[in-house]
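User: Teach me something about this protein's shape.
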Amino acid sequence: MRGSAAPAIFLWLAAQTDPLVLRARWVIDVESGHAIENGSVAVDGYRVQAQAPATARVIDLGNLTLLPGLIDAHVHLMLAGEPEANARATLLAGFTTVQDLGAVGYRNLELSSIGLSRADTIRTATLNAARAVGLEDQVGTLRPGAFADVIGVDGNPLSDLDAIGRVKFDMKAGRIFLAP
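Assistant: First, the predicted structure itself:
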């Protein structure tokens, strides 16, 4: 699904109405595989922007690390339990984009055990997963124009991959669902 229109799945989400700047100790650039120290992400509506207006509200997330929301291309939200509760639990775990089929745990993130670098492992769950489902211009990155799907984790996953499991901030399409 390509183009500038929001996919229908995002219609139930109300984006933040005011421009925001998310500041954090680190911002992971999944394309380069590097961390930007004392970085920020500008958000206006449900998209990441190149820069925010001077009037943007700043949210200081302290020592968290920001990275694109994770993508799981194989989940079963409808099988066990209440679908809405399953979707919310998935979102709060840092997965901002899913394909409803079925997955258990953090299987994509276990790829580091077969020799992938931490940066490549993170790319597998973000940018590469977006490419696999044809959404690389929409999700999986924090570049301007992408959906404002952002997670903040406790620690830097480029040095401690387990930090991915410590989600403390979660934004989907510009709407904050979890804040420290």
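Now, about its shape. The chain has one domain: 8-178. The chain has three helices and ten strands. If you'd like, I can walk through any region in more detail.
User: That's plenty for now, thanks!
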